[in-house]
Amino acid sequence: MAGISVGDLVKASKLAWDIYNNGFAKENNATLQFTEFGSDIKDLAQNLKDITSVVSNASRQRQQSPNEDGLWELSSLVEIIGDYERTLTDCQGLLHENRQFSQNTNPAYNIQWNVLVQPRIDRLRSRLQFHNSKIGILIKPLELKLLTSIHDDLASRIDAVHQSVLTLHALVVPNIDEAVRQREQQETHTILVPEDISTQFLEAAGQSHPEIKSSHVFPLKAGADAFVFHFNKSTTTFTPGRFVNERTPSSLQYLNLLKSVWIMGRIKLSAELTEADADSYWPAYIHELEENLSLECQRFTARRPDQLIAPSLMSLQYPEHFRIWLVDELPALLSPLQENEILEKILRVPLPSSSNSVKRELTLFRADIDNLKLIEKATESTDHGIRTIDQKYDIDLRCIRLTPLYAMTRSESNSLNLMLNAGRKTTTITFLEPRHLFNFQHAITGYKVYENYDQPDVQITFVLSGSRDLKEDGRIQLWLPKSPQCHTTVNESTANTAPNASQFSIQAFRRTDSSNNASHTTFTGNNGGSSPELHNPSRIDLHRITSPMNSSMRAFLNIPNATRPMASPRPSRTAASFSSSGSASRSSVSTVSTGSGIGYVHSKPQKPMLVLFLKGKDQKGSLSIVTVQIDDETFVNFESCQCNKKKHSCLISAIERKKGDLLAQRYVADRDLSSWDIAAIGARRRQELPEAAWNKLKRISIKFKQVEDRERFGGYMCVCNPKMADELRQCVKARHRGIYGEVQFIGSQRLRNYHEDRNDRVKNTFTERSDGLM
What we know:
Elements: H1 6-23, H2 32-61, H3 75-81, H4 84-97, H5 107-154, H6 159-165, H7 176-185, H8 195-208, H9 220-232, H10 251-269, H11 271-274, H12 282-301, E1 344-351, E2 358-366, E3 371-382, E4 385-396, E5 401-403, E6 417-422, E7 425-430, H13 434-445, E8 447-464, E9 470-481, E10 488-489, H14 501-505, E11 520-521, H15 532-535, H16 551-557, H17 573-581, E12 589-593, E13 598-602, E14 609-615, E15 623-629, E16 634-636, E17 652-657, E18 664-668, E19 697-703, H18 707-714, H19 725-733, H20 738-773
Helix pairs in contact: 1-2, 1-4, 2-5, 4-5, 5-12, 9-10, 10-12, 17-20, 18-20
């Protein structure tokens, strides 16, 4: 790490003060946690200012320095304190995203705070307090080392200069000579760590760092951070009473003190410390830690009236009591998941990390039709190797709750969070990019956000027959039914053979990559461009994409083992169409055993949906979700907006149905935030009309901020007037009808393919039976 200057410290201190002044200095009715968060930032700002003052003072007295800035080698200083700049940047980003919490709050904001913001605040406060604690320990030895360096340098010069050294002025240390003498004569007190306790410490630490079994090997930075963490949780917080029975701290506090003694012993033998550079501040910092530890141990060893009494450690028998490293404060290490034939990977995305050395990723597996398994993994790369922690969640699609926290904000990128409630476990997942979030949402709901279209900050007016219009703020998406792809390997030896019953029914769930003749498929998002159905109306030969079905996929489709050979069926138009644009949320053709043979069940494809995430304009800010089925009868009516009068400035898209009411359903979050659940409208749990029906809804008027946003969604008035299917395809392909028109066309095309395929199969069955009678 390169050295830093006084100017760098000044910039960091100024940034901290700016964050505090802009976010917390004004009078407001913010929550208590928010106010305490501001206090922690203020403390860090003051501590950075103190360090700046110490270094600046030493720089001014360093007369021989050629640099006006007084550049010191401070790389070890930053290494000790930690990446405070990143912490401040994260604080600044959180405050920018959640400015409303510094103002008057209401019940809706309180819900958002408790679920979305408070966990992030707690993590940042922990980081801030850790920085502040280490700065408090470091500032005295820092100044002492800086001034001693000047003292030693000038002592060899002329007597006049030597006398001036005696008048060096410090900010923290009042007398340099006295401080140096006390440091050399300091008596060290310690506590003997029992051998069995020391062995358990070594075993716990060796799980993550097996190299520390050698006495001279111990990670300096990780060890020092662990020392500060455990020392702050030791008996330093214990205040004794007047009586003997009030002088015994808790067993856990005393064990943390023993951890500190054990860690300090290993650090002092570490080669990283004994071989540190002369300019490094690590030796001075470790010496200050040792002095603090000695003073605390003296409370147990010195013969005095207020001497503390060591408690019994018999009650501390669990492995977590003896953990050493900070990272082990995360959830307990889990056994790695062995991928086998039962689990099939459907999604893997990276997750954001607070450190460049730590990589996080989320992987989703399918166990069967109703159950998924989520694995969140964190991998840290260190000089001593790679260490990994996994966290597992079992997801039952029949009862999971998935709350779109990102839809509560008005920005496209400020918040990328989903709250997952899986049984007794609730977690908030933050994604790195919007497409990763939408891929995960797709895997849970069975609906793909078409082209990742997500339009926030729109005003929506619902026109109801016989009622007053309802106006709400909202966010809109267009959902296309599509089953998540599993990561499967195609058996090339059977690629050109006639498919059996199992092979044929799987085609609605598989897609080949014709660009490179790949033999496997993975679930990926649609990152742009129109659907292939708009560009290529031809069908794909199913005989070229067949593959054997494994047991887990057979269970997913609920298909019995079929051994009876069958004639090669006519390629399914529906399955081919789904293969070209992504499979539907349910297979259009599946096989069932009829006792005497194999039969086919045709499932009507689900319709695409317009999904509106709504937040009421009332004081409570009530939340709801409205879904509108998209078919040939539902369209963007340019006669109901201002396109006729102000074609190039109209901001409204009006959704209507040619005859009757819109096919809409409304889901209200009537209990808590977790009831604002998009899993409930997914393919696995969603109930068709009249369930949750919103009757008498005549029109939905969506007002956008810009004309370009309105045209992207609903298109504009054109002169195409298509009467044939190919003419309509070209009109939609040119995006005259917007992204809404594309989704509508794909849904209509799938429905037509379904009916054509069903009629063709009935005709083929009748022909086969007729041939058998002849």
